[in-house]
Design brief:
Layout lengths: L5 H26 L7 E7 L10 E4 L2 E12 L2 E8 L10 E7 L4 E7 L13 E2 L1 E3 L4 H26 L2 H39 L2 H20 L3 H8 L1 H22 L3 H8 L1 H28 L3 E11 L4 E13 L2 E10 L3 E7 L7 E7 L2 E12 L2 E8 L2 E10 L4 E8 L8 E9 L4 E8 L9 E11 H10 L5
Parallel strand pairs: 1-7, 2-6, 5-8
Antiparallel strand pairs: 1-4, 2-3, 3-4, 5-6, 9-10, 9-20, 10-11, 11-14, 12-13, 14-15, 15-16, 16-17, 17-18, 18-19, 19-20
């Protein structure tokens, strides 16, 4: 063992890790991966969701710059681009925000303009912009529409699912069929008459005199009481039959006014009208409930992550698979599995007769451990407690640089016969979903199990998972 104390080792390692992470942060921010040289131009987008600083700027798939800064201007996103000195942008170029790669990272794509010899100077503006379609918003609206369709389907099921509803539906179908047949017959007859009218139109002028002659003949027949009109004028029985028909129509109208029959109830029965109004109000309340539920569900977040660590002392790898559920901004739950090559410790006490009790300690290697924690966040500090690697423990996290840097301390597996398992590490977000970490595991162990480690993490939010799953092709 080294003559340097455990506390000194911890302090030196944490100091070295923080210096390295700070150096990486300042180097990345200062030099921008070699694109700090160049001139700045500005462009205003209606929405720059997902676009981050240092994102790529491309023309025809070739990188020509990086995003220097993103700020708010008059309710819109003001994006400052740093363009390579060797690249000249025409006055009428068009800038668009696009996505590429499996992680859906955003970049700015510039469409070249007219080669007329006028170019944008340093500090100038790109005036033409295009916006990419918001897939998440479209999916959200489709989800709301699907919910509305399911609600309407359920209402129709309640209305038509009973025996009375089935009978009414059959009656409606029969009436529709009868109306359709009558309409087809009328249309067929009208088609024949229309064709006949077109055919006879050319002969109309030649038949005008014959028509007047026929009209005179008709008038003479009416006067003599021949034909339907003649009988109506001259025959009293035909007139009486017409009066009876009008009386029947009046009786039907009186029954409707009295509320008799289906149509009469619909027109005059207030209970029927009230029930219809109540159904419409119930549907309106249901739609309001769906909107409130969707608004509440937007606050619920889920995170899925994997972290791998390499332990220098034993040359082993350790893996963590965690599911974090955050119902509120300041409250979260962590469920996970830990693949530890060193396994878990089992202590067995043995007593034989008067022989003093002996304690045997064994390790189950390559055992799968579990995690179940509850946490609370207070601004830049988060406190956790629960099950750590199948033992009770607590933890504290400190966040800095807009949550890009996380420093963690954990204590668990408390036992009177051995030192508690203490672990500390720092984790830095290198890319949107990629994190690098370094730390010291079990650094006060009195059993020689302390070990420095390095690792990396991959983390996804539920919106990222939705995007990835939506991009996976479905086999046909």
């Amino acid at each position: 063992m080294s003559s340097i104390s455990t506390e000194a080792k911890v302090g030196l390692f944490v100091l070295a890790a923080l210096i390295i992470l700070a150096y990486m942060s300042f180097r990345v921010g200062e030099y921008g991966f070699g694109l700090k040289k160049g001139y700045l131009v500005n462009v205003v987008f209606d929405d720059a969701t997902g676009l981050e600083k240092d994102a790529s700027v491309q023309i025809a798939g070739v990188e020509v710059g990086r995003v220097e800064d993103i700020s708010l201007k008059d309710g819109k996103a003001l994006v400052t681009l740093r363009i390579l000195p060797s690249v000249e942008l025409e006055k009428d170029v068009e800038a668009k925000i696009k996505s590429y790669g499996i992680l859906g990272d955003k970049y700015v794509d510039i469409v070249p303009g007219t080669k007329d010899g006028t170019y944008i100077t340093a500090g100038g503006d790109i005036t033409r912009t295009g916006q990419q379609a918001d897939i998440d918003k479209l999916l959200s609206e489709l989800g709301i529409i699907a919910g509305d369709v399911m609600k309407i389907t359920s209402s129709l099921k309640n209305v038509l699912g009973s025996a009375e509803g089935e009978a009414n539906l059959k009656a409606i179908v029969e009436n529709t069929r009868s109306i359709t047949e009558n309409l087809n017959r009328v249309v067929t007859q009208n088609d024949e008459k229309l064709n006949l009218m077109i055919t006879n139109l050319g002969e109309a002028s030649a038949e005008m005199r014959n028509a007047f002659a026929a009209l005179n003949n008709i008038v003479e027949r009416i006067d003599s009481g021949e034909g339907t009109i003649g009988q109506l004028v001259e025959n009293r029985d035909v007139f009486d039959n017409l009066n009876q028909t009008l009386a029947s129509i009046r009786d039907i109208t009186d029954k409707i006014n009295k509320g008799e029959g289906t149509i009469g109830k619909l027109v005059n029965d207030e209970d029927t009208v009230d029930n219809l109004n109540a159904s419409l109000k119930s549907l309106e309340k249901s739609m309001d409930g769906i909107e409130r539920y969707v608004s509440k569900s937007e606050q619920f977040k889920t995170f899925l992550s994997y972290r791998g660590e390499y332990l220098f002392d034993g040359g082993d790898g350790k893996g963590y698979f965690d599911l974090t559920i955050r119902p509120k901004e300041d409250k979260f739950y962590v469920l996970g599995l830990v693949a530890d090559p060193r396994g878990s410790r089992t202590v067995t006490d043995t007593t034989v007769g008067a022989t003093p009790t002996t304690r045997t300690e064994t390790w189950e290697r390559d055992e799968l451990l579990f995690t179940a924690q509850i946490g609370k966040r207070f601004k830049d500090i988060a406190l956790r407690g629960g099950i750590f690697e199948s033992t009770g423990g607590v933890g504290i996290d400190y966040f800095a640089f807009d949550d890009r840097l996380q420093v963690t301390f954990e204590a668990f597996d408390f036992d009177s016969d051995r030192n508690a398992h203490l672990k500390t590490y720092a984790e830095y977000r290198l890319l949107k979903h990629i994190y690098l970490s370094a730390g010291w595991d079990d650094f006060i162990s009195n059993e020689g199990r302390e070990s420095p480690f390095i690792g990396f993490s991959i983390k996804f939010e539920d919106e990222d998972l939705k995007y990835l799953l939506g991009s996976v092709p479905i086999p046909k």
